[in-house]
Specification:
The structure is a homodimer.
Chain A: H1 7-21, H2 26-35, E1 39-42, E2 47-49, E3 59-63, E4 66-71, E5 77-83, E6 88-89, E7 102-105, E8 109-112, H3 121-147, H4 150-167, E9 175-177, H5 182-189, H6 193-205, E10 209-212, E11 215-218, H7 221-228
Antiparallel strand pairs in A: 1-8, 2-7, 3-6, 3-8, 4-5, 4-7, 9-11, 10-11
Helix pairs in contact in A: 4-6, 4-7, 5-6
Chain A binds a DNA duplex (30 and 30 nucleotides) through helix 6.
Amino acid sequence: MSLSPAPADIACPAITRLSALVALDGRANAILADALRRRTPVPARRELMIEGQEIRQPQLILRGWAARVRHLADGRRQIVAFVLPGDLLGLCDPPATIATTSVVAVTDMVVCTPPRRGASPLLDKVYAISKALDEAYLVAQVTRVGQLDAYERLGDFLLELLERLQLAGLAADGGFILPMTQEMLADTLGLTSVHINRTLQAMRRENSIVLKNRVLRFTNAEALRRGLGRLPVRVCATG
Amino acid sequence: MSLSPAPADIACPAITRLSALVALDGRANAILADALRRRTPVPARRELMIEGQEIRQPQLILRGWAARVRHLADGRRQIVAFVLPGDLLGLCDPPATIATTSVVAVTDMVVCTPPRRGASPLLDKVYAISKALDEAYLVAQVTRVGQLDAYERLGDFLLELLERLQLAGLAADGGFILPMTQEMLADTLGLTSVHINRTLQAMRRENSIVLKNRVLRFTNAEALRRGLGRLPVRVCATG
DNA sequence: CGGGACTTTGATATTTCTCAAACAATGTGG
DNA sequence: CCACATTGTTTGAGAAATATCAAAGTCCCG
């Protein structure tokens, strides 16, 4: 095991995810590999994008988590979505588009500029599917916050994270690092951190999850999924 | 006043909205006018699209309202968004895309097939902006349901409807027809219909709104907007 | 070792839900 | 045009879920 990971190692989850969305050919892979060469680190808490301001550069997340946040005048905030490795940010057709949410790094991150649209038909397809997935997860979030009770919200949300991280190969063993505080979970799910804490305890008590030292593991993800009636998110016939 | 409205009359709100998003040139208008010729009626309650099924045809709404609905296994349902005249539905880049929500007609509707992508650069721009708006409203919906209390949710949502209908010229006088039941409002805002009823009464008591015979009117929309801290939804610098 | 951020706990308050029934409006068949 | 069914609205009383407030405990970092 080398001390400093090779470039390919850092990029791997992103490539894994994009390849999972669409099987890439040599050309697409080459273009992608080239783009991955110019990586930019982003420290935790740095804002990648600010609500109401123009979107500067599209970004491909190589490592780390970010949160899409909406701030209210009185200090309340809603975390609308999380941005994970392999996700694309700010890819929008017409330039001069205004961000509807801020995006803030939850952990230290590494990002890069994705290949421009039109560089590869397969990559364009990846972009379209990724965008459709973003929308699907947003719909899921509305439903979660609108209809589910605290236990269901939390379970469904954690299962969604599992599903998404698995796509990037970041939860291959069924467990993953959960880098967010209970307060962030609360702002995501429309609950208070106190209630998140008690709900997590209920899930532990019932032996649904193990969460220790920021590592989350489901005791029986399939059973929990069934119990919550959660269906995997799909946006195209093949995928 | 003629008994059966001329074609242009039916199409007017849709054209008003699309023109408000991007100033259209003669060519775009001609292409649009041509597409508007083949109109399809859709009766209330008919499904325009079914969750999990492939999206058949893109549609441009000429008249009437539809709801994007997510159904849970146990009968609960979340109305994720409303689809109004001038809105576009199912416009997605790659074919074989799967609908993430059902779409069901709330009222009798009239729809048509919009000009295909690539027919006019300006119309393509309209499509992009319309899609960006859809996303912005979805983000607003997450925030509403996640952070606001019942009164705020209802007020903010009704103001959003006003804003959107005004874009289509359907609320020029500051009032509009609200074709949905209190139960639909409840399923939209993650509340019960009983609580919606009481919240509506509170808004009437405080003289914020007048709602009678399905017609909603704000006593002072600007004041309510300020009270709720609601900002208009924007997705591009010019618009 | 001290300090800040995060988690946990307890007691109480508030919002929203549930259930049940009455009431109103609307439409339909006879 | 009435009688009736259906659908939607309104009201009340009590229950449940979740929030609030305050403090103690834990962990990690420098």
